[in-house]
Design goal:
This protein is mainly beta. It has no helices and 11 strands.
Length: 202
């Protein structure tokens, strides 16, 4: 697929990655003890599948400390389907996000270790029936982009300097000769220390 068919205003660089760490370190080289952030503006495009760290930063905490991880990002999906005569065609593109704290996945709740959140997901299917001409062809193309956000909460973090990573799993699956692509665009991570109410359960 030619790049000119992608939505206008997006520049695609399959290998480029821009990570701008926020105030994780002071100007004197000391570790900051407050809110930190990271932002990126390059575009990651993948087909058929990739798991990639798209944001990363560090934060210094004191014990006891609770953290809120706020992730906002653009995700874009491209899919095509094509049927000839009586046929069925399907393609799917998905972007899921997880947050790693010191290499360990931050869960959605205390009841599960799973911390994966679906930021965008499309299954594109087309079925044609009762066609008298077996050469009759229908093609369909979809391209969408949206910004989405989610917050993770991690209570009772021990003191020290910690690493935070946002990992995107971009999956694209399609029938032969079809197109399925997924991308992560502009994105921001904010890690904010907080003091949750006594007795708070996740």
């Amino acid at each position: 697929m030619n790049t000119e068919t992608y939505p206008k205003g997006i520049f695609f660089a399959a290998a480029a990655l821009l990570l701008l760490a926020g105030p994780a370190f002071g100007q004197d080289g000391s570790n900051a003890a407050n809110k930190t952030s990271a932002a990126g503006s390059s575009i990651e495009v993948i087909s058929p599948a990739l798991e990639e760290t798209v944001l990363a930063t560090t934060i210094k905490t004191s014990s006891p400390q609770d953290l809120i991880f706020a992730v906002t990002l653009e995700c874009a999906l491209w899919t095509t389907v094509q049927t000839e005569g009586n046929d069925d065609s399907v393609s799917r593109a998905t972007v899921t996000i997880t947050v790693l704290f010191d290499g360990v996945e931050v869960p959605i709740s205390g009841e599960s270790a799973d911390g994966t959140v679906v930021f965008c997901d499309r299954t594109h299917q087309q079925t044609t029936t009762l066609f008298n001409d077996e050469d009759a062809t229908i093609k369909s193309y979809l391209a969408t982009r949206s910004a989405n956000a989610f917050n993770w909460i991690l209570p009772d973090v021990g003191s020290g300097v910690h690493t935070v990573q946002v990992v995107a799993d971009l999956t694209a699956v399609a029938d032969e000769d079809l197109v399925a692509k997924a991308a992560v665009g502009n994105r921001v991570l904010i890690v904010e220390p907080t003091q949750l109410a006594q007795g708070f359960t996740l």
